[in-house]
Amino acid sequence: MTSSTKNNTSKEKPNKEAVDTVAPNQKTDDISLDTASTEKSSGLLAGIIERATKSGLGRRKLNPSAVEADVAKNMEQVRDNPDQLRLAFLGGGSFGTAMANLAARNGCDTTLWVRNKRTVKSMAKSQMNKKYLSGYKLDESLKYSHDLASAVKDKDIIFLAVPSLAFRETLKSIAPFITGQSVVSLTKGMEKDTFALMSDIIKDELPEVNFGVMSGPNLAIEIMKNMPSATVIASHSEPLRHAVQAALHSAFFRVFASDDIRGVELGGALKNIYAIAMGMAAAYDVGENTKAMLLTRALAEMSRFGVEAGANPLTFLGLSGVGDLYATCSSELSRNYQIGNMLGRGMNIDAAVKKLGQTAEGVNTIQQVHEKASKDGIYMPITHALYAVIYEDKAALGVALHLMEAGFRSDVEFVMPHDYSNAALTAQMQAAASNPDDQEQDSDSKNNAENVTNTDDDSVENKDAKKSTAKNDSASKDKK
Question: Which among 130, 192, 271, 291 is annotated as catalytic?
Answer without folding.
Answer: 271
